[in-house]
Write a structure and sequence with these properties.
Elements: H1 9-22, E1 40-43, E2 72-77, H2 84-93, E3 96-100, H3 102-110, E4 115-117, H4 118-122, H5 137-144, H6 150-159, E5 166-169, H7 174-178, H8 185-190, H9 195-205, E6 211-213, H10 219-227, H11 233-261, E7 271-281, E8 291-296, E9 311-314, H12 320-333, E10 340-345, E11 348-354, H13 358-368, H14 370-373, E12 376-380, H15 386-394, E13 407-412, H16 417-424, E14 431-434, E15 443-448, E16 451-456, E17 468-469, H17 477-490, E18 498-501, E19 506-510, H18 516-527, E20 535-538, H19 549-556, E21 560-563, H20 570-580, E22 583-586
Helix pairs in contact: 1-10, 1-11, 5-9, 9-11, 15-16, 18-19, 19-20
Length: 594
């Protein structure tokens, strides 16, 4: 028989660190940041709390140099003191002298840890309301000195400076402070940490000799590593990476806040987007593509809603395509004021209906294209109760009246407990999401090769624009309401996009065709005979009218057409509609979606 190989403490530490760095449940998983001035850059660490503001006592006496005494020193300065006693006692038990500041020192002493205060090393008191504590050669010299450089050690000995082997630091709670309500500018400024990032960066730069920890989840891995009394440069390197990522994300929040305070343009000369890994995905758009999902941690996204912050109550883990489709469905349904159901397939709404009775809205949305709806995403802008949940669970496909409808995802702003219980019984894999409306006014980012396109989000609704009648025939009130409904639907359909609707219900849509005429024909085929008297909306103007899309729409019997206008052949469209007695309204707003 073979006995299992023993696991060294160093190996155990590496495993603990890997778990901390890469476990989907941890808030400290991020890719390394990159910074490119005047372009988009990404950093990947959640911004946590930072170094103390509590004052420390006046200097007592200089500490003997640890560089020539063999004494091991650890510097601890924390604002977020989670598990402080654990790491402090653990380091002390391993023979480390603990050097600390202010409130951290007091908390350590209360936990029974012997502490050397920073001013005993610097021989200088804390000053300027705590702005200057650790910015001193006796601190930074001990962090930055390379142990393999003789002249570095000689310089430390000359000046009586001891080395630090471990630096445990986190930062002032700037992110939490400036995202709280009623924060004053001066409060924000005073929560910009200076000494903390300096110590973190110094220790991370000198990671071959100094272990730097910025996340309490790494305390167990740190102690296991130190117990091993061995060296593992990869362990050190990963901690250093995490430290720089932590500071990078922190700095991005400060930069974003200051730019906003300065009244700067919406598009600053440089833009940093800190991303926090939410989960690793099974694969990307296709099985051969690896993928992950990140949450946008910009200050502007705080309480901003959207699918990224949705709560999953049930079902299989979300996939790359699930996120895209759920986002499309949720953004669409949230635009409607009346109780509405939206069904999405491959990011296109294939069924939309608004009714006071949400059950009827659901049935009509599925009926619009039951073939596409099968395996799609269904979204509601009202709470899902037990009655609606039962209808979702039991509803049969309108194509045969027998096949129970299957969905990948249900998303809504809320659920009753009874409603959740019913939906959980529909399928083990059905993903049930509870989301908050995506707030208006955000920036929309999209990647192209080597760069990023940034624009305002398309937040306009029918209530924000004027539908101007340009034809001889004026649409009646019901027709105009249907034109507004169709226009709101077409905004969420991939260009070239056409939507036909009647009685606040989508009858058919054509999407993604390279010419508008083809999209029109697809939409009319889906609408069938119901097209007569219906409203038609186009995401952009019609370049041709006669013997083209406008005339075909008029010949089919539509009652009103809504389009932006702006073509050099607008008069042809008007004349064509007048010939057939069709109302034509211009919105002056285009809704391309690529």
């Amino acid at each position: 028989m073979f006995a299992p190989a023993a696991t060294s403490p160093t190996t155990a530490a590496a495993r603990l660190l890997r778990a901390s760095l890469f476990s989907p449940s941890s808030h400290s998983h991020f890719l390394p940041p990159t910074s490119v001035r005047s372009s988009l850059c990404f950093s990947y660490l959640p911004i946590k709390a930072m170094a103390d503001t509590t004052s420390v006592s006046h200097p007592i006496t200089a500490s003997a140099s640890s560089s020539d005494s063999g004494r091991k020193q650890a510097l601890i300065s924390l604002s977020d003191k989670k598990d402080l006693a654990f790491v402090g006692n653990g380091l002390q038990e391993l023979g480390y002298t603990i050097v600390s500041t202010g409130g951290t020192a007091s908390a350590l002493e209360s936990a029974g840890v012997a502490v050397t205060k920073v001013e005993q090393l610097t021989q200088f008191p804390e000053m300027l309301d705590g702005r200057v504590k650790t910015l001193h050669p006796n601190i930074h010299g001990g962090i930055l000195a390379r142990r393999d450089q003789k002249h570095h050690i000689e310089a430390l000995n000359t000046h009586g400076i001891g080395t630090f082997d471990v630096v445990v630091v986190n930062l002032y709670p700037f992110y939490d402070k400036v995202t709280s309500t009623g924060v004053e500018f001066e409060d924000g400024i005073e929560n910009i940490d200076i000494g903390g990032p300096a110590m973190i960066r110094a220790a991370a730069k000198n990671h071959r000799d100094v272990l730097v920890v910025v996340d309490s989840q790494d305390y167990p891995a740190l102690l296991e590593f130190l117990k091993g009394n061995q060296d593992d440069q990869m362990f050190r390197l990963k901690l250093a990476w995490k430290a720089f990522a932590h500071v990078s994300a922190y700095d991005s929040a400060v930069s974003e806040w200051l730019w906003k305070q300065s009244g700067g343009d919406k598009f600053p000369p440089s833009l940093t987007v800190p991303l926090s890994l939410k989960s690793s995905l099974r694969y990307g758009e296709n099985p051969h593509q690896k993928a992950a999902f990140y949450v946008d941690k910009r200050l502007s996204e705080v309480n901003g809603g959207g699918i990224a912050t949705a709560i999953q109550h049930h079902g299989k883990e979300m996939s790359y395509n699930n996120y895209l489709d759920a986002d499309a469905a949720w953004n669409c349904v949230c635009e409607f004021r009346d109780p509405t159901c939206v069904v999405v397939k491959h990011t296109n709404p294939c069924g939309v209906a608004s009714r006071n009775d949400i059950l009827e809205a659901y049935r009509l949305a599925v009926k619009a294209d039951p073939v596409s709806a099968f395996g799609g995403i269904v979204a509601f802008n009202v709470e899902v109760d037990e009655v609606l949940a039962k209808e979702i669970r039991e509803f049969r496909s309108p194509t045969d009246g027998e096949t129970r409808m299957f969905y990948e995802i249900v998303v809504a702003p809320g659920y009753t407990e009874e409603g959740l219980d019913v939906l959980r019984g529909k399928s083990k894999t059905l993903r049930i999401l509870e989301a908050k409306k995506n707030e208006a006014g955000k920036l929309s980012l999209r990647q192209v090769g080597g760069g990023w396109l940034v624009q305002d989000s398309d937040d306009l609704t029918p209530h924000d624009i004027k539908f101007s009648v340009v034809s001889e025939r004026t649409p009646v009130d019901d027709e105009l309401r249907d034109a507004e409904f169709a226009w709101l639907c077409v905004k969420h359909v991939k260009s070239n996009a056409i939507v036909i609707a009647k009685n606040k219900c989508m009858l058919g849509m054509g999407s993604g065709q390279p010419n508008r005429l083809e999209s029109l024909r697809i939409a009319m085929r889906k609408a069938g005979d119901d097209v007569k008297g219906a409203a038609l909306a186009s995401d952009a103007f019609f370049p041709f009218a006669w013997k083209d899309a406008v005339e075909e729409a008029c010949e089919s019997g539509v009652g009103v057409i809504a389009e932006p206008g702006g073509s050099i052949r607008d008069k042809d469209a008007i004349d064509c509609c007048n010939k057939y007695g069709v109302s034509l309204v211009f919105t002056q707003v285009r809704h391309f979606r690529h």
